[in-house]
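Quick one before lunch.
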Amino acid sequence: MSKSPRLELPSGQNFTCQGSTRCCRMLDVPLLPAELARYAGEDWKEKPIARTLGGAPHTPLVRSGACAFLSEEGRCRIHERLGACGKPLTCRIFPYTFAFCGPTVRVGVRFSCPTILANKGEPVVRQEDLVRGMAQAYRQAKRIEPLPRAPFHLSYELSWKDIDRIDEALLSSLEDGALPLSGRLIEGAELLDEMKYVYIYGSPEEVARGIDGAAVRRRVLEALATPPPRLGLADRAVLAAFLAYLAPPGRGRSAPVRLALRLAARLPGRLRLDEIGRVSRRKARKVSAELDQESTALLVRYYKARIWGRTHFGRAFHGLSYVAGWNFLLAAHACLVFAARARAATLGRPRIEIADVELAIQKVEERLYSSNLPAGSWGKILSFLLTTGGTGKRLALRFAR
Ligand code: SF4
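Model of the iron/sulfur cluster complex:
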C-alpha cells in the first residue's frame, strides 16, 4: 500500500462489536494458505480443512451451520488459543469492506452484522487507525492493486471522479421522498441508462447537454402508474435463483443454479426461506409491499451504505460493472421485499414491519452478497439479463411496490 492512502470512512455509521456471534453462525470463512498451515499445526478437535467451497478451504461448520470453532460459550476457539490476530482474515476485518479506488480506500460496512444494522457503538470515523490496519492486512493478504479506473458498463471504464459524481446523483435520488423507495431505485437505474448512452455513445453536444433529469423522472412515474409488468422466462430464472439463495443453508448454498433452472419454468406455490420458514407465495403476495417510514429510513441507510462502500460492483462484487451491479441491487431489493412480505405472512400480518425488513436485509446480505455467487460466465449472463434485458427493473416493479 502506498505510504498514506486516503481512507474514506462512512460518516454517521457506528460500530463496536457486541459479541452477537451472528457472523460465526453465517459467514463462509475462507482460509488463506498461511492460516491453513498455522491451524493445521495445532491439535484441534475440529478439522480446519474439512470443508471446501469453490475449490478453496473454509472453516468447517457444525450441523446448525455455525463455524465449528465457535464454542458453546459463544467464543472463538482460534481467538482463545492464538489471540485476536490469529483469527482468519475474514473474521478479523468483518464487518468492514474495502474498495481500493485509485489513491483512496473507500471503507464500507456489511449489514449482515446486527450491530451495523442497529448502528450501535463508537463512530467508525473515530476508529481510523484500527480500520487502516485492517485495510492494510486485507490488501497485503489478497495482493490487491488499486484500480486506476472504474468498470462502468461492459468494457467501458470511467475515472473515480466520474464515479463520485454518479454516486452523488444516485444518493440524491435515494433521498428524494417524493417517490416510493422502489421508484427511487428504479430512477437510479434509469439515470445510469441515460449516462450510459450520453457519456459512452453520445456526441460531444449530447455530452455537453448532460442528463435530462425531468425526462427520467417522467419515465419513472409512468412506470409506477402502469400495471406491474409480466415476467418472462429469464426474469423468473433470476428470481428463482435469488430465492434459492435465501433457502436454508444445505440447499441454498449447494445448488442454487440447479435449483434455479428447475424453478425457472414454474415457481412452486410454497417456498422455504431461511429463518422465515415455509410460506405460500399466494399468501406472501397478499401482504402489502408498502413500507412504513421506519422501514424506508432503514433501507435508505442500507442502500446509501452500499453506494458509499462501492460494494455493488467491481472487485467487491464479482467484477460486475457499475450499471450491472445497480441492476443486481434492484433485483435483490425485489427479493428482499418479497422475503419481508413472506415473513409478515408467516406471522399472520397484512403489512410489513421493521423486524421483517431487518431480517430480510440480513438474509440478502448473507446470501446474495456472499462470496459464492456464480462467477465467470454465469456472472456475465447475469449482467446481461439484469441490464440489457431489464430484469432488475421488472422484478422491482412487480414485487416491491
Ligand atoms: S473462526 Fe472464530 S471468529 Fe471466525 S467464524 Fe469461526 S468462530 Fe467466528
